[in-house]
Amino acid sequence: MGTFAFYFIIKLLNSVGWPRRRSIFNSEAIINVIVLDDAIQVMIDLFAALGACRPKKALQMIATMHKDKDWEGENAPRILDFINGSRWEDSQYNKKSPHEIINFPNLLPQRENIRLKDLKGVNISLKYLKSMNTDLETFGQAALLWGLAYSDRFNSWYERYYKESTEELPWAQKAGLKIDSIPTLSKLLEESEETLNSYERERGLLSKIPPKLLADACALGREI
Question: Could you give the C-alpha distances from 180 to 45, 83, 92, 126, 200, in angstroms and in order?
Answer without folding.
Answer: 20, 37, 32, 28, 29
